[in-house]
Design goal:
9 strands, alpha+beta
Length: 262
């Protein structure tokens, strides 16, 4: 029998396992950046977010009363990247991104973006504790569809981790609903990427769709490359930056409407 020749495969290079940020606890990374930006000089009216009926969470509880205005320094824009879109106890957040208006001694006024990323399942409890430390009784949360998805998911994770729920008594401005009221039917949909492109003029370059984030994290956990996680972090970073820009846009448009009607 003719012997088969053996073809030598090229050696496989090392897999990139590097992660963004610094490790602040075993398996927990913190990525922090500062974007120069003029801070709002006065309280921001939240009248644009008023709705006719009380907002209810998945548990049926009426959400915390919305203040008429907010000190810009109390606003915390947040978004999560999760292991799935269905929710429930089997879904967890592997990244929490948050942005707030901040005065940095070395960088001046701007938007501070902080992101927490877990590289192991065991690091989730530490991530939840750190995120809770970013909140205070005066915090006003802001998100895009966070009332229906991000906040209930985090509340479930806090309960499973046997930690107090820091979101429970905080007012929460969900920018999805006022965006729908203002722009529904004008563009093809009211997804955040569409709103930021059409209303804010923000164009993302090589953006990783959020639907691919779970696969990127699971690939890393199974020993794969971390390259896709870097793109997930970039996507999450832009999401929370867009939330801050969108909030200011909606406040300004509502003020213009009030002036025109008055």
């Amino acid at each position: 029998m003719r012997a088969r020749s053996v073809v030598a495969l090229p050696p496989r290079g090392p897999v990139d396992r590097s992660l963004p940020g610094i490790e602040i606890a075993p398996g927990l990374r913190l990525v922090e950046t500062h974007l120069p930006m003029a801070l709002p000089t006065a309280t921001l009216s939240l009248a644009f977010a008023a709705c006719r009926t009380p907002m209810r969470g998945r548990a049926g509880a009426i959400a915390s009363a919305m203040p008429e205005a907010a000190d810009p320094r109390d606003l915390l824009f947040f978004d999560t990247e999760t292991t799935g879109l269905a929710g429930g106890t089997g879904t967890r957040a592997f990244m929490i991104g948050a942005a707030d208006f901040h005065r940095h001694p070395g960088h001046g006024d701007g938007l501070r973006v902080r992101q927490l990323l877990i590289a192991t399942m065991a690091a989730e409890a530490d991530m939840l504790r750190v995120f809770a430390d970013w909140l205070s009784p005066s915090t006003v949360l802001a998100s895009y569809n966070g009332r229906c998805y991000d906040a209930p998911l985090l509340k479930t994770r806090y309960r499973l981790a046997r930690q107090p729920d820091p979101l429970r008594d905080l007012p929460h401005v969900d920018l999805l609903f006022p965006s729908r009221r203002r722009w529904r039917g004008r563009w093809e949909n009211c997804r955040l990427a569409t709103i930021e492109r059409e209303a804010l003029g923000v164009l993302r370059d090589d953006d990783l769709p959020g639907s691919q984030a779970p696969a990127a994290w699971l690939q890393y956990l199974r020993g794969g490359s971390s390259s896709m996680l870097g793109r997930v972090a970039a996507h999450n970073h832009q999401d929370v930056v867009t939330l801050a820009l969108l909030m200011r846009k909606l406040v300004a448009l509502h003020a213009e409407d009030a002036t025109a009607a008055g």
